[in-house]
Design brief:
The N and C termini lie far apart (48 Å). The protein has twelve helices and no strands. The protein has one domain. It is an all-alpha fold. The protein has helices spanning 2-16, 20-45, 48-72, 77-95, 99-119, 125-144, 153-172, 177-180, 184-209, 213-220, 223-231, 237-242. Helix 6 (125-144) packs antiparallel against helix 7.
Length: 247
């Protein structure tokens, strides 16, 4: 009965996410990710100085968003508490100069939000990018591992070309420029960065065709930097670098 009640509640809540309600929830997500993306990038890049600055802006946006989510999603208190805990752990890791641990905790935050959006049927452009990040992360991890993470060569080939197809799908996905506040100049920059990411992918595929694992490992190091150049356009790096000064 508890399970049935939860399903009914989720159905009712999902039905409320229409029109203005949906837009307000998505706006809150966009504002949070403008703070979240810079911190995520800084931790992956190992930029301790900027990561420590970014924490203040992330926490500010999280507290605002949490209040909205508590109103819209009262049944998701556990998920919100998990996000709150993972963010706290990430802050502590940043303070301790442990960027790898901080990035790991931020990944938990990212997945929790993605799952919430999936559960309530909320379309969100960044989810496609986050899933693509995971795919190229696996490509790089396997390429740099001497035993290819126990993958067969054919399995890796399938993963690679599926990732390329996923990227093509992302490029066809319409972006709500008004929601993300992309003007024409920013849209052109996005297209340019996407072109660069695509070029890196095809170059990586060409390296793969040579069947040289060592060369593939070297080439894999270019995947994440190219991706982050795309993702960075969805973050407010100026605010992340200056908000701490207001505290």
């Amino acid at each position: 009965m508890k399970f049935l009640a939860r399903v009914v509640c989720i159905t009712i809540l999902a039905s409320l996410f229409t029109g203005c309600d949906t837009m307000e929830v998505r706006k809150a997500m966009v504002h949070f990710d403008r703070a979240f993306v810079p911190l995520l990038v800084y931790t992956y890049e190992g930029d301790i100085h900027q990561a420590k600055r970014s924490v203040f802006y992330v926490e500010f946006q999280w507290q605002k968003m949490k209040k909205q989510y508590q109103g819209y999603l009262p049944e998701e208190a556990i998920s919100l508490n998990r996000i709150n805990s993972w963010l706290g752990d990430a802050y502590y890791a940043v303070d301790a100069n442990d960027m790898a641990l901080a990035a790991n905790q931020l990944e938990h935050v990212k997945y929790e939000f993605m799952e919430l959006r999936r559960q309530y049927g909320i379309d969100y452009y960044l989810d496609g990018l986050f899933e693509f990040q995971d795919a190229i992360g696996l490509l790089a991890e396997a390429a740099e591992d001497e035993v290819m993470c126990l993958m067969e060569w054919g399995e890796y080939e399938h993963l690679l070309y599926q990732t390329i197809e996923d990227w093509k799908a992302i490029r066809k996905e319409p972006l709500d420029a008004e929601l993300y506040e992309f003007d024409e100049a920013r849209l052109r920059k996005l297209a340019s960065k996407q072109d660069a990411m695509e070029a890196v992918l095809y170059q990586f595929a060409e390296t793969f065709s040579n069947a040289n694992r060592r060369q593939l490992a070297i080439a894999s190091q270019s995947l994440q930097p190219a991706f982050f150049e795309v993702l960075k356009l969805f973050g407010n790096f100026e605010a992340s670098q200056t908000y701490f000064a207001l505290k």
